[in-house]
Amino acid sequence: MKYGKHITMGIESSCDETAIALLADGTEILSNVISSQIEIHKEYGGVVPEIASRHHLNNIPFVFDRALKEAGVELKEVDEIGVTAGPGLAGALLMGTAFAKAVAAASGIPLVGVHHIQAHILANVIEHPFLEPPFLSLVVSGGHTHLIEVEGWNKFRVLGATRDDAVGEAYDKVARVIGLGYPGGPKVDALAKQGDPHAIEFKRVYLEKDSLDFSFSGTKTAVINYMHSAEQRGEEVKPADVAASFQQAVIVVLVNKAVRAAREAGYCELALAGGVACNSELRRQLGEALAKEGIGLYIPSPILCTDNGAMVAAAAYRKAREGHYASGRLDVFPNLNIETQLDLLDR
Questions:
Q1: 177, 223 in Cβ contact below 8 A?
Q2: Are 333 and 344 within 8 A, CB to CB?
Q3: Could you tell me the pTM of the whole model?
Q4: Radius of gyration of the chain (CA)
């Protein structure tokens, strides 16, 4: 029983995690069930969209039942159902939204379409409920690298974004060429602890002088070229030094741009979000740099950085409080813009 609490269900299926959570009053996690496909996709060195979609279809009923059971909540007690409608893999998104629409239609529970990046940002509020807009967010994941002004819970302005590879994507590709396998982010981070971050000076791309955009393709390519050249010359390569040097080149750019954006916009709080927010060295360097500027840093626990249903529920709760609901015609949008999302999701 919820004992008067407001219960929100969050459904996430934008990539390779089938996740459903129940949140009370927008911050209290009652359950947070995640079915990961990492072991399945390891064989292919990355996520295969068709395979991901099929596993979502198989997994979601069981994840749904377990989430309700662990929360000790009956479906009739749920006040709204939030579901990720974009961005993400089209087929994967369809599995989650189709299920959410069916449950909402059968139960009469209001439906809320959620933007995936918004959900990542609001994961911070679950553990830091005193965090309130406006603030700045650095979103770093396998598919996204953004600097975003959070002007309100449902109002965002993108200050910078990647022009090519997302940071997590670059990590995966570098991990592959080093021979670490998938997923690359945690493997590179772990190996880098044993290496010298200044052993190799890989390319650091800042783009135009005043740009807050990112580009990691050149850095990734520099690593690949270094590995191939060393192999052709028969030179010994220290994988730990390569991992540490690559990571340093990436993190220095992320930290410098985040600090500059916060300073120029006058923000005293920054929220880190996304799967790459689990990276230990990024957490350390960003925390130290922001502390020197007197800027507070908020980071969710690792379980809330990677894709999960709790973050979707947190976003859906705040969208519903402002009257942003979706109809049974809710579609999926693989390239959904966070600035204009309400035009597509509120219908």
A1: yes
A2: yes
A3: 0.95
A4: 20
- Per CATH, domain 7-124+305-345 is 3.30.420.40: yes
Q: Which token pair is 64?
A: 């749904």
* pLDDT, tens digit (0-9, with 9 covering 90-100), for 270-292: 999 999 999 999 999 999 999 99
Tokens of 109: 């529970």
Cα separation, 283 vs 227, in Å, equals 27
| Confidence check: pLDDT of 183 > 90 | no
The count of residues in the chain is 347
Residues 6+ apart with CB under 8 A from 265: 136, 149, 159
Give the fold, CATH level 3, of 133-300.
Nucleotidyltransferase; domain 5 (3.30.420)
CA atoms within 13 A on the CB side of 90: 2
pLDDT of 38 higher than 80: no
Domains of the chain: which residue ranges? 7-124+305-345, 133-300
Determine the pLDDT at residue 347: 66
- pLDDT, tens only, 81-137: 999 999 999 999 999 999 999 999 999 999 999 999 999 999 999 999 999 999 999
